[in-house]
Amino acid sequence: MSRLRIFAETTPDAPLFDSRDGDAIAAELRKIGVTFERWQADQPIEAGAAPEAVMAAYRTDIDRLVAAHGFKTVDVVSIAPDHPQREEMRRKFLDEHFHKEDEVRFFVAGSGLFTLHVDGKVYEIECVQNDLIAVPDGTYHWFDMGPEPRFVAIRFFTEPDGWVGHFTGTDIAQRFPRYEAALRGEAN
């Protein structure tokens, strides 16, 4: 189940807001320009489905976003706990960074933890199956797929290098819970 916790940037152990209600999550994130939606597949998806089948199942929503935002590329990424580069892939975006285009992800299966740093607050969003999150370009954030990642996500891009992370050099991400601790509601 999706979850949003909001913290003051100085108190990673005391959430100011904590909800698993999709409408409440969307309303809070909308205040900072982040889109959060729940999608349903147009057709069933089988385990191990090819990327083309995954995209076909969500074609209506994909086409809507592409038309509204001008995305040039849409792909599917799938990470499993036995992926040989899972540790390297996890570390890649664990530190605070931003992108020069919106980061838009739809979770077809599994989950991941997006954490945003906006106006002195930290927004910790656990995204699960059927969640779409759109983080505006320039928003400081980090992403944690956990030590045993398991997710399939549809990604949307405007530019080929727009997904490249530009790191801030701060240590704020280390002061907040990693995915496995956040699931248990623990502080770092």
TrEMBL record:
The record marks 96 as: May play a role in metal incorporation in vivo. Fe(2+) binds at residues 97, 99, 103, 141. It catalyses: 1,2-dihydroxy-5-(methylsulfanyl)pent-1-en-3-one + O2 = 3-(methylsulfanyl)propanoate + CO + formate + 2 H(+); 1,2-dihydroxy-5-(methylsulfanyl)pent-1-en-3-one + O2 = 4-methylsulfanyl-2-oxobutanoate + formate + 2 H(+). GO terms for biological process: L-methionine salvage from methylthioadenosine; L-methionine salvage from S-adenosylmethionine. Pathway: Amino-acid biosynthesis; L-methionine biosynthesis via salvage pathway; L-methionine from S-methyl-5-thio-alpha-D-ribose 1-phosphate: step 5/6. Its EC number is 1.13.11.54, 1.13.11.53. The record marks 102 as: May play a role in transmitting local conformational changes. Belongs to the acireductone dioxygenase (ARD) family. Monomer. PANTHER family: ACIREDUCTONE DIOXYGENASE (PTHR23418:SF0). Catalyzes 2 different reactions between oxygene and the acireductone 1,2-dihydroxy-3-keto-5-methylthiopentene (DHK-MTPene) depending upon the metal bound in the active site. Fe-containing acireductone dioxygenase (Fe-ARD) produces formate and 2-keto-4-methylthiobutyrate (KMTB), the alpha-ketoacid precursor of methionine in the methionine recycle pathway. Ni-containing acireductone dioxygenase (Ni-ARD) produces methylthiopropionate, carbon monoxide and formate, and does not lie on the methionine recycle pathway. This is Acireductone dioxygenase. The gene is mtnD.
